[in-house]
């Protein structure tokens, strides 16, 4: 027998405002689960109910097996903008829209990227260690550099990449961008469009990655691409693990071909503690948290909950859907 209420399974990290939006509804029943729940445990949870109408996900993968367990599923909502952990073709075939939190965390990721860039330029990790280990007299062997006048290449000029580019312009940097899916007319003012990475990498002082993880971008920065980079350049990634070949990056840094790197994403996650990159003084790391500021969490909570309520009501904004064709089909 179908329940009169719509049942929504949600990761516990959903922002409080989003939880309250759902809890205030008499026609919604909420069931929380840990954000780090395994796919197997999520399937077991789904199988406890005759119907699951919506799932709000954090980091848990969601594919065909999870869809089969979540009977009557009408929408998958991601707390974030990434969707590589969701089987989009499978959801599309099943007529289930996958919704993301567009415009919720691009500011946070962009600021995190700039903090990485400044940290590398100012050698903050090395200088912090120098002070704390009593090596004050060595400070002139570790001089920082300035961002103004240096060249930065932004790879991927979506919401995040565009925000990063504007912040870099404010620091007086020379900004170019590579995005084969945007034409020159759509580039923001002051940003030079480059037609290929081959021409841009040898002259960029900083390369920052903001492209999605797709078959096309997986392993994009491997041995060959890293070798194309300007000697002493810095690589920053807040995109997705697997776009950068971490082993190849370690070799380039160990050989001192690159000046440093900063990573918010890894493959796998969490990375093993013996990852050789962690042994290098010119590598900065964070635990895939660049888009998770306190403010962004609040915004994402509201958007993720709103996406669910809109789809359950027979609406849904195509601008927030990864597979908008499903929304159009369901509406018609």
From TrEMBL:
Pfam families for this protein: 2-Hacid_dh, 2-Hacid_dh_C
Stored InterPro entries: D-2-hydroxyacid_DH, D-isomer_2_OHA_DH_cat_dom, D-isomer_DH_NAD-bd, NAD(P)-bd_dom_sf
Name of the protein in its database record: 3-phosphoglycerate dehydrogenase
The family this protein is said to belong to: Belongs to the D-isomer specific 2-hydroxyacid dehydrogenase family.
Entry-linked CDD domains: PGDH_4 (cd12173)
Organism lineage string: Bacteria, Pseudomonadati, Pseudomonadota, Gammaproteobacteria, Enterobacterales
Superkingdom classification of source: Bacteria
Key words, A-Z: NAD, Oxidoreductase
Tagged with keyword Oxidoreductase: yes
Coiled-coil intervals: none
GO function term, MF aspect, one: oxidoreductase activity, acting on the CH-OH group of donors, NAD or NADP as acceptor
Residue intervals passing through the bilayer: none
Domain D-isomer specific 2-hydroxyacid dehydrogenase catalytic: 11-323
Domain D-isomer specific 2-hydroxyacid dehydrogenase NAD-binding: 115-290
Organism: Chimaeribacter californicus
Entry keyword Nuclease: no
């Amino acid at each position: 027998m179908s329940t009169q209420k719509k049942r929504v399974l949600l990761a516990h990290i959903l922002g409080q405002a989003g939880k309250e939006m759902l809890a205030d509804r008499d026609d919604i029943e909420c069931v929380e689960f840990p954000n780090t729940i395994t796919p197997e445990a999520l399937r077991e949870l789904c199988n406890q109910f005759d119907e699951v109408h919506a799932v709000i996900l954090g980091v848990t993968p969601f594919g065909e097996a999870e869809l089969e367990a979540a009977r009557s599923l009408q929408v998958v909502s991601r707390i974030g903008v990434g969707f590589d952990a969701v089987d989009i073709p499978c959801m599309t075939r099943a007529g289930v829209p996958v919704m993301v939190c567009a415009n919720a965390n691009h500011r946070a990721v962009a600021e995190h990227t700039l903090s990485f860039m400044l940290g590398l330029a100012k050698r903050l990790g090395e200088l912090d260690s120098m002070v704390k280990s009593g090596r004050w007299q060595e400070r002139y062997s570790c001089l920082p550099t300035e961002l103004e006048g240096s060249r930065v290449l932004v790879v991927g000029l979506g919401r995040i990449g565009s925000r990063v580019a504007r912040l870099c312009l404010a620091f007086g940097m020379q900004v170019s961008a590579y995005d084969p899916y945007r034409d020159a007319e759509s580039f923001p003012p002051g940003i030079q469009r480059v037609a290929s990475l081959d021409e841009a990498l040898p002259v960029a002082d900083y390369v920052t990655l903001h492209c999605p993880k797709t078959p096309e971008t997986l392993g994009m920065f491997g041995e060959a691409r890293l070798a194309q980079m300007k000697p002493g350049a810095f690589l920053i990634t807040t995109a997705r693990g697997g776009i950068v070949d971490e082993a190849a990056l370690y070799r380039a840094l160990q050989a001192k071909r690159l000046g440093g790197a900063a990573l918010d994403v890894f493959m796998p996650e969490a990375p093993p503690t013996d990852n050789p990159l962690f042994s290098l003084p010119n590598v900065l790391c964070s635990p895939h948290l660049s888009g998770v500021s306190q403010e962004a969490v609040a915004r994402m909570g509201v958007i993720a909950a709103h996406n669910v309520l809109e789809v359950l009501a027979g609406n849904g904004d195509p601008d927030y859907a990864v597979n908008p064709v499903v929304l159009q089909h369901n509406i018609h």
